Amino acid sequence: xxxxxxxxxxxxxxxxxxxxxxxxxxxxxxxxxxxxxxxxxxxxxxxxxxxxxxxxxxxxxxxxxxxxxxxxxx
Length: 74
Ligand SMILES: [Cu+2]
Fold this sequence. Notes:
Elements: E1 2-7, H1 12-23, E2 28-34, E3 39-44, H2 52-59, E4 64-70
Antiparallel strand pairs: 1-3, 1-4, 2-3
Bound molecules: copper (II) ion.
């Protein structure tokens, strides 16, 4: 799992756009985007790792992706 901090989202359309962008990245299983927390939780397919730079760049086309951090699964 990864957490991405994203600024510039204003409504559910923005949320849907970010979700689509993240779920189009290789290896991504699903992305949960939380508007009020400026946060996306990215879940990977088994064994897959996220290309964090590519994911940040993709989101940065429309929004401001601040950081992408791996989160240990519990
Ligand atoms: Cu919007």
